[in-house]
User: Fold this.
Amino acid sequence: MAKTTKKFSLVPLGDRIVVQPADATGEKKLASGIIIPETVNKEKLLKGDVIAVGPGARNAAGERVPADVKPGDTVFFKKPWDEPIKVDGIEYYVLPGSDIILIEN
Assistant:
């Protein structure tokens, strides 16, 4: 049976990109029982899948510059300061294109 994909109901504007993080973030507990809060790893890159991409930023001439990523790409991105949004119980980050660091081949 073919898998049906539900269309994402939100459309990002400008150079914004919607990413579903692959890893659950939050506190980590060591075997010794020590809890390491999420705030310790602020510089860690996160991995996720691109869900939706805005039309692109405008340059000085007013022309659109499309994003370097497309829906379905797996990317590494900087941990955002903003909280993720929840749509149908799934968390997503809305990032500026400049927060995307790498695309996985």
